[in-house]
Amino acid sequence: MRYVQSLLDVVYPPVCAICDTPLAGRVGLCGCCWSSAHFIQGLCCETCGAPLPGESCRRPLCDECLATPRLWSAGRAAVAYSGTMRDFVLRLKHGDRLDLVAPAADWMSAASRQIWPDDAVVVPVPLTWRRLVHRRYNQAALLARALAKRRNARFAARALVRVRAPAPSGADRTARFAALDGAIRPHPNIAAALLGRNVVIVDDVLVTGATLTATTRAAFAAGAADVRIVVLARALQEA
Ligand SMILES: [Zn+2]
Ligand SMILES: [Zn+2]
């Protein structure tokens, strides 16, 4: 195995996940990208993981989650979707950079430690098969599988299915929520894996939360006892 790894290092020497600077060790980011990445630490919103100023309080919520209470009970994000981390997420999503899954799952595992439920089943936000064929992989499923492994949890890849594509990007908040109504459903045979379980839904980015809301609804329709969410990146409103 070690031989295979050193052979891989010769063929594909480890490089920074964002800027391609060669790396000495097997870490995901070079020092420069690491220091400019916005990892979310300290006080954050209990349901979407957005960083919050100030001291801890019992159940801190951001303005968005106060205005639109989430269907899920808790959520965390590893990084803010901006700057170098936006590049990282886009490379993972569209750039065939599957080597980015491992460091991303490490960050998500650390970020979700406080809210991770006992006896969890991890489920990705599903893609339509059409999108899956086009992209060849579902980045949310890769992140979900790697996260489940790190947390010793069950992984139910296809318990929820997507029957319609999401609203086009650029659609406003209301249109996004409306387009997703009924678009994600429990799989008729596999969704029994979620019955009575603590479900953790995984996605790459949380923007409005419309997709995660539709996925949460489907998890409850499948009989989930509780639903939490973990995302790689939280898109924050410009201050
Ligand atoms: Zn770099
Ligand atoms: Zn929030």
What key phrases describe this protein's structure?
ComF family protein, alpha/beta, 9 helices, 34% helix, 239 residues, single chain, Rossmann fold, PRTase-like, PRTase_dom, 16% strand, two-stranded antiparallel sheet, globular, ComF/GntX_DNA_util-trans, binds zinc ion
Class from helix and strand fractions: alpha/beta
Bound molecules: zinc ion
The number of domains is 2
Q: Give the N-terminus to C-terminus distance in angstroms.
A: 48 Å
Helix content class: 25-40%
Percent strand equals 15-25%
Question: Spans with pLDDT under 50 lasting ≥5 residues?
Answer: none
By CATH reckoning, the class of the largest domain would read Alpha Beta
Order of strands in the sheet with most strands: 1-7-6-2-3
* Strand/helix succession: HHHEHHEHHEEHEEHE
Query: Biggest β-sheet, characterized?
Result: 5 strands, parallel
The shape, in one word, is globular
Summarize model confidence as the mean pLDDT. Answer: 89
Family: Belongs to the ComF/GntX family.
Domain Phosphoribosyltransferase: 189-236
Protein name: ComF family protein
Organism: Palleronia caenipelagi
